[in-house]
Amino acid sequence: MPWPSTGSCAPPQPGTLDPQWLAQLEEVREHVGSEPPLEVLYVFVLAWSRLYGMVSMEAFGHLAFALTDPGPVFEQTLREILVLLGADR
Question: What is the pTM for the complete model shown?
Answer without folding.
Answer: 0.76
